[in-house]
Amino acid sequence: MVAAPPITDVLLRVRGTVQGVGYRPFVHRTAADLGLRGWVINDAEGVLIRAAGDPARVDELAAALQHDAPPAATVDCVDRLEPRPDSAPAGAGFTIGASRSGGEIATAIPADLALCADCRRELLDPADRRHRYPFINCTQCGPRYSLIEGLPYDRPHTTMRAFPMCQACQREYDDPASRRFHAEPNACPKCGPHLTLCDAGGQVLAERDAALRSARTLLQGGLILAVKGLGGYHLMCDATNEGAVTALRQRKHRDQKPLAVMFRGLVELRAHAVVSPAAAALLTSIQAPIVLVPRRPDAELAAGVAPGNPWVGALLPSTPLHLLLLAAVDFPVVATSANLSEEPICTDKAEARRRLTGIADLFLEHDRPIAHPVDDSVVRLATGDEPILLRRARGYAPAPFPLPGRLPGPLLCVGGQMKNTVGVAAGDRLVLSPHLGDLDNLATQEVFVRTIATLAQLHGADFAAVAHDKHPAYASTRHAQQLGLPCVAVQHHLAHVLACLLEHHHPADGVLGIAWDGTGYGEDGTVWGGEFILLRQNHAERFARLRPFRLAGSEAAVRDARRVALGLAREAGGFPALAARFNYSDRDAAVLSAMLAQQLNSPLCSSAGRLFDGFGALLGLGEINRFEGQVPLAVEAAATPFAADSRLLPFPITRAVTPGARLEVDWRPAVSELLHLRGDAAADAAALHRGLVQAMVEVARQAGAGTVVLTGGCFQNALLHSLATAALTDAGFRVLVHRRLSPNDNSIAAGQALAVLWNLTSVTLPN
Ligand SMILES: [Zn+2]
Ligand SMILES: [Zn+2]
User: How does pLDDT run across 225-268, given as a tens digit for each residue?
Assistant: First the structure.
């Protein structure tokens, strides 16, 4: 008698970003090719597979699940389990089963992805049934998070439930061999969303392809269009038309902040900017962010696009709608989020009318509802092409992060105040929302509350606790304290450092965290922002800081960098001369001097962001921050061509004169040198960067930790980032910088999650 061949019958559990990315069709194809029997389903934990057959073939399948996954998928792990008695048997062939909801929520909500090459080809193919259809998508591309209303990620849980599929679309959706098998937003011109061109009153002027063609004519005529895209509305106009750009700025009350520009493709972009291979790779990635690239001197962009700025924020069309629009015009278009600065991007029709009438001349819109606003992500590149994420949103969020341990119960992390994001952590995972904006304004606060509700619902999280910043006046803190849950307050700069450790799976031991930013609430109630936090055995100490200085007029000094410079000069000697250089009247100078002397509305701070402001004004490179970080950006831009110089401004390390830190970085000698020996401002700006970096190296030596973390908004400065990384590495330190998270306050919520997991929430102050 011949023995029956051995059979393996197992369950395979796949976790990661595996829903909505074509993973089940891939499993189906692979398993069928290997001659295995069984099934594959989506459930709340990810993808579950039953596979029965030849043991070697089952092993091959398990390996393929990890290594041959579709491009948009991220597989965290593949676990092999014994079949549970309650799971369906393998059956005769290999099938794709219905989705199951419930259970522990650990699956990831996929991020929205740029148009794929296959869909792009079909879009441009006159023979294809989706030729010029602006909502073409498949399992490799298209909207995801922006239209999800619940999990599992299935059509009835998306805003596409309003569009019943036609027979042809349904056939694709049901066919495991199709690229559109369970492509949740699947649609065609017959059954899906379509375009309209409307005036401000809502009167429809054109529909479908005619709307698109009219939009082209309007852009050519110099008009401003509100265009509803994937995660919200953009304002668009001809980026080479000075009049159109000026009108947009005036109507949007946007003084000088750079506007993003969309180019048809890399070829067109290269005519206006220098595009490195790394920048090109980012621009054409599935995330398709805005990338800051050096502008060519001969670029034919309107001066008003980015006044006085050597970089241009460029992006390529990432949706079929934008691709068709850009293909129709022979110029690049401004593509700025249709919102006031740091408000959430505008998403629905009524809201668009309310907020954009008077700004946009006409509205190019569609009827696919947007469930969640998702702004464009923004990235720049440091030396060595290391990406620095300035805004983590479309394409990146809400991809999850593994936590280095399990939380006892679901945790809500409400983040900070500026550039807010919120996080939901449960089990050993953290999901971080896209960038929401500044909580100073009501529109962001509304989206903040809605996003918390959505993430909680999507992840079935019944929160056991909430983590917030220590700042008592942050809107996020006040919200957290109203929830009736146990609250955990986390120091701001510690959260920055922990966010970076989370990315690198590094413990809170043997680490010096250099957290430099504009502002954060310190343990002593003063404004911090130039911090050196030493982590040893899960304990944090404020090892060093910038020597504290006073901000004359508090908030007024955040805008007016001259006030910071005068505060510095007052202590370094040279106040009257500097006041005269700034053309202050004797009276104004006397008032300011008295404010500083009597400490009237002049809080102490150790903020590196403000220090850059002060030096910017001292160097004559800028006086007023018309948008956040404008003066420091001017300092960086001036310094960049002199990056390779060797001169540095002196920033000696001294014992802290008042309690609160062991050491401090003394900026007085550098201020004094600039007051007395004025040289070339740009070369001085570079010497400033090198001097500060030298101080970082010296503090790191004295701290004696092997690893240095660079974090906080100041490390959006690519020159500071690059010089600090190089100098600390040369000095023998392991340097950790942000890769998947942003160095700015987008990451505070992530740090808060780790703070709770490690019970590390405060920074102790040495006596
Ligand atoms: Zn596609
Ligand atoms: Zn259809």
Answer: 999 999 999 999 999 999 999 999 999 887 788 999 999 999 99
Ligand positioned closest to the Cα atom of 165: 2
Give yes or no: residues 358 and 457 share one domain. Answer: no
Confirm whether 153 is domain-assigned.
Answer: no
Residues 6 or more apart in contact with residue 482 via CB below 8 angstroms: none
539: which strand partners? 536
* Confidence at residue 86, expressed as pLDDT on a 0 to 100 scale: 73
**pLDDT tens readout for residues 111-157:** 899 999 999 999 999 999 999 999 999 988 999 999 988 777 788 88
Say whether 704 sits in a helix, a strand or coil.
coil
Distance CA 762, CA 467 (A): 13
Residues 6+ apart with CB under 8 A from 238: 219, 220, 222, 244, 245, 329, 331, 333, 334
Residue 551 CA to ligand 2 center (angstroms) comes to 61
- Inter-residue contact 723 to 474 (CB < 8 Å): no
**Ligand 1 centroid – CA 603 distance (Å):** 54
Residue 510 and residue 440 in one domain: no
Summarize pLDDT for 150-184 with one digit per residue, the tens.
Answer: 777 788 889 999 999 999 999 999 887 788 988 89
Ligand nearest to the CA of 113: 1
Structure tokens at 96: 């794709």
Distance 556 CA to ligand 1 centre (A): 50
| Residue 461 CA to ligand 1 centre (angstroms) | 32
Is the model's pLDDT at 103 over the cut of 50? no
Distance 113 CA to ligand 1 centre (A): 9
The CA 373 to ligand 2 mean position distance, Å, reads 26
267 and 411, same domain (yes or no): no
Q: What is the C-alpha separation between 244 and 484, in angstroms, rounded?
A: 50
Question: How remote is the CA of residue 178 from the centroid of ligand 2, in Å?
Answer: 14
- Does 360 share its domain with 442? no
* Residue 73 three-state SS: coil
**Distance from the alpha carbon of residue 143 to the mean position of ligand 1, in angstroms:** 10
**Separation of alpha carbons 72 and 285, rounded Å:** 10
Q: Which ligand is nearest to the CA of 173?
A: 2
Distance 180 CA to ligand 1 centre (A): 8
Both 468 and 586 in one domain: the answer is no
Q: If you measure from the C-alpha of residue 171 to the centroid of ligand 2, how many angstroms do you get, rounded to a whole number?
A: 9
Same domain, 345 and 236: yes
Ligand 1 centroid from CA 598, angstroms: 65
Exposure string over 178-199, b if 16+ CB within 10 A, otherwise e: bbbbbbbbbbbbeebbbbbbbe
Any idea what the CATH number is for the domain that residue 725 is in?
3.30.420.40
Q: How far is the CA of 23 from the centre of ligand 1 (A)?
A: 14
The rounded Å distance from CA 195 to ligand 2 centre is: 15
Are residues 477 and 545 part of one domain?
Answer: no
Distance 117 CA to ligand 1 centre (A): 7
> Which residues pair with residue 207 across a beta bridge?
196
Instruction: Note down the domain range covering 656.
Output: 499-758
pLDDT of residue 108: 66
Q: Is residue 673 part of a domain?
A: yes
